[in-house]
Recover the amino acids of this structure.
């Protein structure tokens, strides 16, 4: 793995120099990663934890790194000498990849010496914000399509890493394959792809282009039929080549539509293929698709079996940033926790203080009823009724007589070492599918979703209320 230790904002290092000067650089601190509400966020799919663990295990300043920092003229020699020996020695607790998460709940927490915890902020947010964003967008697109979505976005991604790790995240969100060969190799993702319009244009005729492609891939022949005229040329020529393939003992795979009125063209193409005896030939659609256009096409009765989605998936076009933040929750003095809170005139920006745990509360039918944030060390007694209340509008309450509580978070890094088994992306995707099935559709629907409850325990609420009342950030 690349050494990404300098993948940080300068102020992390200038604060580090300051903590070092003040003798507070080894003070233990706790930071939480969470995101705030947005109109387009109904739920999110956590991703990127594996990259966080790899980054932290590999954290070290090379000689070149130190030489560059020295050239900035910002840092003392004794501080640079300290950095030369620095490794991450802290603990990280996080949700599993593929877990459904909601605003305000700490999906990842770092507990480490202050300088380490501060240094890693930027990179952790980079990994988690990006992959969670793309996994979530993929999940919404897959939900609209009903499955069969392939990620085709590499050429439109904002850089190589965005394309590579975006493909990874898309698989967690439910995509079945990618066009990205590098990501396919790196993460064992199924890869797919056929031809571009340039292939067809490079032959004397469309029919000749189709025959040439069929000769190279007789058992995986999927033809792009909209280079010239989809219904009067592309589909008829595809059918002619399909008949030749069948006569030679091969079965064609299908056709791809990339432009035009996809609903109309797919319905006409389906009738033509069926009439010619190719009922099993698939129709794949691509071309600036997202959950909105796919939903519209399905409402119009489009006969599309699979979907290649690129730009609007890999860039999460309608919501290009998750907005996750990394906030100080506590420091420790002589082993004693001192909760910290960020105050604001905006209620949504006031943080939840102290070390915490997050439980998902399931009702007696096994469906998710709420997420419950508690102070570290609190237990949730499944043998007693649980009263949940809105953290701001506290008069909004409900009581569950029978329920099951599951801790959403588990150790990711302990003592600077990754402790989770690396799982295939299919396992993360399955976790998402299984957990989503436990949410009522009202919480996960795209349009006007019901707000899922994320509540605080009485003890955490009391701590937060008192710290706000006193206007005290320490």
């Amino acid at each position: 793995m690349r050494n990404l230790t300098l993948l940080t904002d300068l102020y992390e290092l200038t604060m580090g120099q300051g903590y070092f000067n003040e003798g507070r650089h080894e003070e233990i601190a706790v930071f939480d990663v969470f995101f705030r509400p947005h109109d387009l966020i109904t739920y999110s799919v956590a991703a990127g934890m594996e990259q966080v663990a790899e980054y932290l295990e590999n954290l070290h300043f090379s000689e070149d790194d130190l030489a560059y920092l020295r050239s900035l003229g910002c840092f003392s020699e004794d501080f640079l000498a300290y950095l030369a020996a620095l490794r991450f020695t802290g603990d990280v607790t996080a949700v599993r990849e593929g877990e459904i998460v909601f605003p305000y709940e700490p999906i990842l927490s770092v507990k480490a010496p202050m300088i380490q915890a501060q240094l890693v902020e930027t990179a952790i947010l980079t990994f988690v914000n990006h992959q969670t964003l793309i996994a979530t967008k993929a999940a919404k697109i897959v939900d609209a399509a009903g499955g069969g979505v392939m990620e085709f976005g590499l050429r439109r991604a904002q850089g190589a890493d965005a394309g590579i790790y975006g493909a990874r995240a898309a698989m967690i969100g439910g995509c079945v394959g990618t066009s990205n060969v590098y990501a396919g190799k790196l993460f064992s993702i199924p890869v797919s792809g056929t031809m571009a319009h340039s292939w067809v244009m490079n032959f004397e005729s469309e029919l000749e282009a189709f025959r040439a492609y069929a000769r190279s891939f007789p058992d995986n022949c999927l033809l792009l039929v909209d280079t010239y005229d989809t219904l009067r040329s592309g589909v008829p020529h595809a059918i002619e080549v399909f008949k030749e393939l069948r006569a030679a003992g091969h079965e064609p795979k299908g056709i791809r539509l990339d432009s035009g009125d996809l609903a109309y063209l797919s319905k006409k193409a389906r009738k033509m293929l069926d009439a010619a005896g190719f009922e099993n030939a698939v129709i794949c659609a691509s071309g600036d698709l997202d959950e909105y256009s796919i939903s519209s096409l399905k409402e119009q009765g489009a006969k599309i079996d699979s979907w290649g989605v690129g730009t609007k998936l890999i860039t999460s076009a309608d919501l290009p940033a998750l907005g996750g933040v990394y906030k100080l929750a506590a420091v420790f003095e002589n082993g004693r926790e001192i909760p910290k809170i960020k105050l604001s005139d905006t209620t949504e920006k006031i943080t939840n203080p102290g070390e915490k745990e997050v439980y998902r509360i399931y009702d007696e039918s096994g469906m998710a009823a709420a997420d419950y944030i508690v102070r570290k060390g609190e237990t949730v007694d499944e043998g007693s009724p649980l009263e949940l209340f809105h953290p701001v509008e506290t008069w909004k309450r409900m009581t569950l007589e029978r329920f099951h509580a599951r801790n959403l978070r588990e150790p990711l890094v302990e003592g600077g070492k990754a402790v989770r088994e690396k799982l295939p992306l299919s396992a993360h995707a399955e976790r998402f599918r299984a957990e989503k099935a436990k949410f009522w559709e009202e919480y996960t629907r795209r349009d006007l979703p019901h707000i899922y409850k994320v509540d605080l325990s009485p003890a955490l609420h009391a701590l937060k209320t008192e710290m706000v009342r006193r206007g005290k950030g320490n």
In short: The mean pLDDT is 96. The two ends are 38 Å apart (CA to CA).
